[in-house]
Design a protein that fits this description.
The structure holds two protein chains of two kinds. Helices cover 18% and strands 22% of the residues of chain A. By secondary structure, chain A is an alpha+beta fold. By secondary structure, chain B is mainly α. Chain B is globular. Classes of the chains: A alpha+beta, B mainly alpha. The interface between A and B is large, with 55 and 53 residues. Strand 2 of chain A pairs antiparallel with strand 1 (2-6) of chain B, so a sheet runs across the interface.
């Protein structure tokens, strides 16, 4: 799973997340924890759980897809930002510099995962940053800490002894849209293909 | 397969203001091209359109960036951040230079033209052609490099934008020249020879434009899932009225028929109708491409 094109310093950590959907119960606690921790305004989410219902009674199931920034190895947002406000830390976390961002929203339309939003009060782009302030203080991201079933596992992918590195190495993991060449560092175990479907019904901006 | 119980709706990012910006730069590039036909390439037939073309190009390029600044959340900050914190691999970065160079060059070109200095007019006209192509072509690049959207991410996008710029610019010039000749000259007679030559160019450019749309859609319908979804959305879905009827039927096919049928081409009334329809259709094309291209959620 390593990227042959990048010569990232192997001594530094490379943060990533594994989401084990066999454990996920769809309680949306991660959403709320994220909102509280990062002061995310109403109507927008840094991390959310897409929930779908499939099958026919009695064979029905609800499937979940927790969604957050994938902190890609080759982030498209960093490439397209005209003012270098989107940037990547040495440990792989993709950040937005609020002092540089001018709110042109180009990165939002270029992100294949649609995880960036425009902050209604600041007018700037905002998104999940793996709770970088907490990570720097040696804590886990708040969604990881809040998850009641420990479905989210966060850690250093470069450290072979870490839980995330072990899961990525030994379990059948998948990422979202690998064909985009972004090399996401959020891995899913047991991802249901039904949660990846494109929603066809949309409300156009001129529709009431 | 599954019924969505909860999901987050994607915030639409680039909508009408960006469409208007693309529309105005397109009109500007198109009218600039017309103005260079006589001074740059020596086609004397088009000389009466030159001065009007360059004035329209400069004025429109003064309006166009205002739409861009209104769209950006921090307009004042963006004026200098675009240069100070330049990201050389972003398509938008080049725009900030082109949006300064192209109007400056057009103004210099216009000044020499009004002073009847043929040599310098030709020089700045020829410098202006690649700049006009770039200032509109790069808007196609902006969309094409938004790689997440299959509707945008095609190599045809800059070329489609160039052709739609030229057709809308010529339509605007036809209308402007008619108004000028009819109301603001001593003779009050429309220069039919010039108008018909422009209409003929318009017709052939519309043929190319429609062919490009056909290429784009025939490939999109065969491509991967997101491309197929967005092509169905445009052709048969909620966007079909704007794409099929307004953009292509009203904006391209009917004007093309009008300018190719000799009887209709000789009628001033029908040429006005064709030009107006084409200008409306190209505005619809901008909105369909910019807004419609990203209206469908990706996951």
């Amino acid at each position: 799973m390593s990227n042959p094109h990048k010569t990232r310093n192997k001594d530094l950590p490379r943060y990533g997340m594994v989401i084990d959907l066999n454990r996920c119960v769809g309680c949306h606690t991660c959403e709320i924890a994220c909102k509280i921790e990062n002061d995310v305004p109403l109507g927008i989410w840094r991390s959310w759980v897409k929930e779908i219902e499939k099958g026919k009674y009695p064979n029905v199931v609800r499937a979940f897809r927790p969604t957050l920034c994938n902190h890609c190895e080759n982030p498209i947002c960093v490439k397209v930002c005209p003012v270098s406000a989107a940037w990547q830390r040495e440990d792989g976390i993709v950040m937005v510099n609020p002092h540089l961002c001018v709110g042109c929203r180009y990165c939002m339309s270029a992100c294949p995962y649609e995880v960036r939003y425009i902050h209604p009060q600041k007018g700037m782009i905002d998104k999940c940053d793996f709770c970088s302030v907490r990570v720097d203080a040696g804590l886990q991201p708040s969604c990881v800490e809040a998850c009641p079933t420990s479905a989210r596992i966060f850690g250093d992918l470069n450290d072979s002894k870490s839980e995330v590195a072990r899961l990525v190495a030994t379990k059948p993991v998948s990422t979202l849209k690998p064909e985009m060449g972004t090399e996401p560092r959020v891995y899913y175990i047991g991802l249901d293909v039904a949660t990846l479907e494109i929603r066809r019904e949309v409300k156009l901006v001129w529709e009431k | 397969m599954g019924k969505v119980v909860f999901d987050v709706q994607y915030q639409t990012t680039l909508a009408f203001l960006i469409s208007y910006y693309f529309y105005f730069t397109g009109l500007s590039a198109g009218s600039f091209m017309i103005s260079t036909l006589s001074y740059g390439f020596g086609l004397e037939k088009f000389k009466p359109a030159s001065k009007m073309g360059v004035v329209a190009a400069v004025l429109l390029l003064l309006i166009a960036p205002q739409c861009l600044l209104m769209q950006v959340a921090w307009p004042v900050k963006s004026l200098w951040h675009n240069f100070l914190y330049l990201n050389p691999i972003s398509a938008i970065s080049y725009g900030s230079f082109l949006l300064i160079l192209y109007p400056l060059n057009s103004i210099i070109y216009g000044v020499f033209m009004f002073k009847e200095n043929k040599k310098w007019t030709k020089l700045f006209g020829l410098i202006g052609i690649p700049l006009a192509l770039a200032v509109h072509g790069y808007t196609g690049w902006i969309l094409a490099l938004g790689v997440a959207r299959d509707y945008w991410n095609t190599g045809l996008m800059p070329i489609v934008f160039l052709f739609s710029a030229m057709v809308s610019g010529i339509s605007m010039m036809i209308l402007f020249i008619m108004i000028r000749d009819r109301f603001f000259t001593k003779e009050k007679v429309i220069n039919h020879d010039l108008i018909r030559s422009l209409a003929k160019i318009l017709g052939w450019l519309l043929v190319v434009d429609l062919f490009l749309v056909f290429c784009d859609y025939s490939i999109l319908l065969y491509s991967k899932l997101e491309g197929q979804e967005v092509a169905h959305f445009m052709l048969f879905g909620k966007m079909s009225f704007w794409f099929v009827i307004v953009e292509n039927l009203v904006g391209k096919v009917i004007p093309m028929i009008i300018v190719f049928v000799p009887g209709l081409r000789r009628s001033t009334f029908w040429l006005i109708v064709a030009s107006l329809m084409n200008m409306v259709g190209i505005l619809a094309m901008r909105i369909v491409t910019v807004y419609g291209g990203q209206a469908l959620p990706l996951m």
